[in-house]
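Pair request: fold both.
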Amino acid sequence: MPHEGDSIDPVEKTSKSGIVSTECPGNRAYNALLDATYIRILAPQRMGDLNSLKSSAPCLKTERQAIERLDQDIKRADKLGAAHDITIDPLTVEPKGTRELLPPFTIADSNATVNGETIPEGTTYIKVNHFDHYSQAMQIGDRLMAQNASGTSKIDETNSIILDLRDNRGGSIPGLQRMASLLVGDSNIQSIGKMSAENLLQKEDSEIQAYPMNKPYDGVVEKLKDKNIIVLTGPETAGGAESLADALREKRQAKILGTQTYGLGSFYVSERMGYASITYPAGKMFGASGRWLGEGIVPDIQVDNSQNGQNRDIQLKAAIDILKK
């Protein structure tokens, strides 16, 4: 038994619940995050693994050390047979790489120049960079329905649509649903994909359906049924953009041109757990075709822009050449 005045090293005072010490405040954060992670994500029956991780953690002085330690431990979770692909701290999960923030969408009319290529007569070019809010699809619908001096709308003068999703990594699910409603069809008859449960949060599989648009936009959907649609894709096309491309091919007989998409076949959930944000895959995404999107979408017409030696958009030119035939 220690005598009065003896010092006890708090680092040595450990148990299956982990280090208990005022000198190791980071361990409290570590234990709380670990508990939350196991309860929400990992198999709760593996409590032995949880206690082992707690007891083996060193003295953590700060919350940052706790987050870094937990990140390391979660990356070893596969060895425990528990889970994988979990990110600690970042608020979002995106494919690798960084890029500048692009505008939500751009539209180019016939005879406009895009990337050095002239959009042919009767063709409308639409580039959707991400699905960011509810009104995005309505703004595009307004542009397509806008009337000129003769009283004819853009959609009436359009024979073909080039939909550019090459820089689209997904985004807002409601934004995707409304875009699908505008371009694919009504939610009562059109499914643009399926989310398959993989963990405790998602109890059942669920359909990803187009979101009903207001009546004024019904005309766009009907008139698009008779249009030629080419969807441009590439390695940056991911998540919801892959769902939309797949749905347009299945439901609107659109042709996909470009290179294979990224293959972001999981949907993610981010939760703030007091000390950090934990982002993890909550399930798998399947397209309207029934295929798992994690393998990427292979275009109907494969054209590689990387062979471009003249700073020209070979994929866009290929789409234009097809529409001119």
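--- second member of the pair ---
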Amino acid sequence: MKKIFSKLFKDTLSIALTVVISVALIVMVAVAATTVGNNTSVGGTLGVTGATTLSSTLAVTGNATSSGFLVVGTTSPANNMAAGDLLLGGSATTTGDLVISGGDLNKGGTALTMGGALTVTGATVLSSTLAVTGKSTLTGNATSSGFLVIGTTNPANNMAAGDLLLGGSATTTGDLVISGGDLNKDATALTIGGALTVTGATVLNGGLAMDTSKFTVADTSGDTAIGGTLAVTGATSLTGNLILIGSATMATSTATTTGGVWVGAVAAQPTSTIMVGGGKAAGENGGQGCIELWRENKAFRVYINAAGTGVIAEAGRCRD
């Protein structure tokens, strides 16, 4: 009986030691598997309830889901990040699309700089300022609900929605249509360096001056001054007075049987009068009138005598 209890005790102790050693080996294996430097493979879900620090590369071959925010790098968040936020402490490269569906794209709440080309295939809404330091190419339509400034020039006046300010030169290969405003340079004179072709009616509300004084039209009176020769190839109608301060030459190539210069009465007017010279009444000094006629290279003058009682026709020029 004593031998039986002794053998039973030895067997029980042996089994107990075996269990203890097995548990110790399992713990040692588990500890060794989670030690940095060894590979760990998780066949199911890995749940982490505390902070996790990775000193090496984390490779995800499938999908990764986070119920909080994710910080890549050693940069500490400077603001209150919420679940779903991503903070990149360095550079980020994507080989696919970057879709922003419900937030903003900015750099620390300030201006965002694009180092390369930016291609936009859909509608773009800008709620703030867009500054372009390089070239910008638009292959489609561009719509602005505010004003647009091209260049670094700051608007000197209050620009409204739909206004365009060009800080430099502008070239158009098509038409420039101004339907409801004015074309000026800071509300002053506008200089056109090349040819200007106008196919429609032109309205000038401020007068007209060509080459300073060669051809001018006064703004208020409408008086027209021509600094050179005026050549008229068609019919000319004068509804007012024609005053010649200097001399005037009227030549005609028509036959003598056809009138070269006509002076006719306006409709409903009884007479047609040609006045040569000035009046002399009430102390006014008037010049003497003289008509000079030519025939076969000889001049004849017709004028009123000194007494004012008759007309004298004789050889000679009026200036003699």
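Observation on the second member. The CA atoms of residues 6 and 12 lie 10 Å apart.
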